[in-house]
Structure formats: C-alpha cells, structure tokens
Specification:
By secondary structure, this protein is mainly α. The chain is built from two helices and no strands.
C-alpha cells in the first residue's frame, strides 16, 4: 500500500507541474497580448490626435476658402466694371492693360489656393479610410463569435 501511495503522490505532483507549466504559458501569452493592446491603444490615441488636428485644419481651410471665394467674386465684379476696353485679351498677351494685371494675378493665386485645399482634402480622405476601430481585436488572438473558457484545476 505504501507503493500505491507513492504512485498517487507522484501522479498528483506530475499533474501539478503540468498545471503550473500551462499556467505559466497562459500568463506569458496574456502579458504579451496585454503589451500589444497597450501599444495599439497608444497608436490609436496618437492617430486620434492627428485626426483631430486634420479636422481642425480642414475647418480653417474651409473658412479661408469661403473668404477667398468672396474676394474672387469681388475681383470678378471689379474686373467687369473696370474701364478696360479690351475684355478679350488673353492672359499670354503682353499688351494687357495695367488695370487687368492685378485682378488676374489675384485670380490665379486664388485658383492655386483652391487646388491646394482640394489636394489636402483628398489626402485627409485617404488618411481617414485607413483608420481602424480600436475595438476591432482581430490579430490579437481573438476570434469573433467564438467563446472559449479556460478552466484550471488546482
């Protein structure tokens, strides 16, 4: 019977070692996943800050664009009402009257500014399309819709 007790104690000791090894592996995996989750959270917060900055920049650019459009309309009206007799002069012609040069250069500047704004909006749209939700846990060992429970016997 002493031999049976030794075998029983040995098998209990072996199962405890096996459980300890499983626990250690699970703990290491959990710690690794926790570190990755923290890094992802930091990256998300950083991207959220950049997004907020871009949104603020878009709002300020929209305000600037609306003011530039108003100025452009004013310049167009001033050009129509100017005393310039030849309204069909092309922009490449060197014989433009002096009154037409300034509004046309301002108009070109406004068109360049508008094209830069449009390019910035396209870049922001591309940036926003690459964002992922912070609650999307794929890639961290999480399978959507699958519930698994780990039980440790001690």
């Amino acid at each position: 019977m002493a031999n049976g007790e030794v075998e029983s104690i040995a098998s209990t000791f072996d199962s405890e070692i096996y459980l300890d090894e499983n626990y250690d592996r699970l703990l290491d995996a959990f710690n690794e996943m926790h570190e990755k989750a923290q890094k992802l959270s930091q990256a998300y917060n950083s991207l959220k800050g950049k997004l907020r900055w871009h949104v603020d920049k878009i709002i300020s650019c929209q305000k600037e664009l609306s003011s530039l459009k108003l100025k452009d309309e004013e310049l167009e009206k001033a050009l129509e009402n100017s005393s310039c007799n030849d309204k069909t002069i092309s922009t490449s012609s060197p014989s433009q009257c002096e009154m037409c040069k300034e509004p046309k250069s301002k108009n070109e500047y406004l068109l360049k500014t508008l094209s830069k704004f449009t390019m910035g909006r396209d870049n922001l749209d591309a940036f926003l399309s690459q964002q992922k939700c912070k609650f999307k846990k794929e890639g961290l060992g999480y399978t959507f819709g699958k519930k698994t429970f780990i039980t440790l016997r001690g």
